[in-house]
Amino acid sequence: MFAPGAKHHKAALALDDLASALDAGLPIESLGGNVDLEDHVLLDLAWQRGITLTASEKIVLEAAWKSGNAGKALRGRAADRRRQAEFYEEIWAGLRYPVILLCMLPVVAVATYAVIGPDFAIALAIAYGILAIVYLIMARKLGRGDANLERFPIIGSLLEDVRELPYLESLHAQYGAGVPIVEAHGAAIRSVKMRALRERLGQTQQYLSEGIELREALHRSGALCQETRSLLATGEQAGQLEDALERALTRRREVAGRKMATAARRIGQIAYALAVVAIVYVVFKFYSSYFAMMGL
Q1: What is the Cα–Cα distance from 10 to 18, expressed in whole angstroms?
Q2: Residue 215, CA distances (Å) to 62, 229, 244 in order
Q3: pTM of the model
């Protein structure tokens, strides 16, 4: 059975096990680590355990190894993976039944082809072909971080929250590990895929390099949403930037999760309605053709 969160649960267990071993004081060599890799030791250990790390996770683990907070960082990444698994499982719960129905339609089209004719099968093939093309185009745009996606209905709203997550995760982990804000910010930018946000954060980096505080640099560049900028500004003014980063990250995760779950339910409802309409059409067409052949 398809388990959308299985790989993340598996990765979380492996990361927790590695963190436990390091916290217990086991030599890095006994775990298969190579100290000659320096800052990439944790990345190599994760790779040996079959964990595919994201760009943000790589940056965080590199910073954690430098600061001596490897165990804490690994447990944090494990917790993130569990949240991702729960997120995907929630989305799949809303899409599962409609997707099964849509997957059954080609079988129905083939099974009834001799009675209802080729029209339904051809229409279904065209519809699925269009969906596949749209999916490939959108996946390619997402992979490139195309700024035009932000102007798309529904998708643009979702990206507003999701695109900030890698940046906030990386910046929070590095700043919490003691990395200076200018250096941490520059590294965090590397985890951002969306081109428009990356460019605005690049401007923020320039302001930071000139000695401007983070809240003012973000305000000038217009990077991040207003809510995130407000949380970070309040925290920085109070001398609690690390706590503010954590609260901003939690807020963006919660908002993005709710939006994605809502979008998944709507897509599931649309897919279910289309599947039901298609099935009703097939049943009507089948019996109409059957009675016509029987001369009734």
Answers
A1: 12
A2: 26, 7, 11
A3: 0.72
